[in-house]
Amino acid sequence: MSTIEGPDGKPRCAWCAGAPEFVPYHDHEWGFPVSDDRRLFEKLSLEAFQSGLSWRTILNKRDAFRAGFANFEIARVAAFTEADVDRLLQDAGIVRHRGKIEAVINNAARAQELIAEAGSLAAFVWRYEAKETAPPQSRSTSPESEALSKALKKRGWRFVGPTTVFAFMQAMGLVNDHAQGCVIHARAAEARKGFVPPASAHTL
To answer: Entry's Gene3D superfamilies (predicted)?
Structure first.
């Protein structure tokens, strides 16, 4: 079953049945195109923390993550020190995993380098917008997520495997992976149709 009945009686992606908080996230965020660098960096960071865990765990801790990581402002996170790592390891509101905490700080510095290279984080990631050749929610990676993962790893990013990157692409609208029968599918498609990706400083 690709859809379930939502609280308003309209069909939604079946994964919304996993938790009540999934419905507003699904309806207003997931699959809609994003060009804001802070939001893109936040999502890449949260997807890294989700590795091996459930998205419900991360979503419910999102406010605590934002508080701990300076609202995921790239320059501020890039300036974090070992004292910040120690602080975050004591923060019960987040996932206290040293490797993932250090990866986010590293990735913030790498994001600064990427912004200098491409003009913005958005300009870079939107080069890898999915071609949508597969049915919605039929895969956990794509050729585009594999290419973006490879490009980020080449630039020193951590915790950005193809599956993590594909989840990021689903959420940030680089692919419309809402089920065909989902009431949000058409809304996300319309938003993507009117979205103009940021111009890149360089081509691939």
So the answer is: Hypothetical protein, domain 2 (1.10.340.30)
Identify whether the C-beta of residue 188 lies closer than 8 Å to the C-beta of residue 59: no
Q: For this structure, is 25 an active site residue?
A: yes
97 is in an annotated binding site: no
Q: Domains, the chain, ranges and CATH? A: 34-174 (1.10.340.30)
pLDDT tens profile 162-199: 999 999 999 999 999 999 999 999 999 999 999 998 88
Active-site annotation holder among 47, 128, 144, 157 = 47
5 part of the active site? no
Catalytic residue among 30, 55, 128, 157: 55
Q: Tell me, yes or no, if 47 is annotated catalytic.
A: yes
Overall pTM > 0.85: yes
Residue 16 marked in a binding site: no
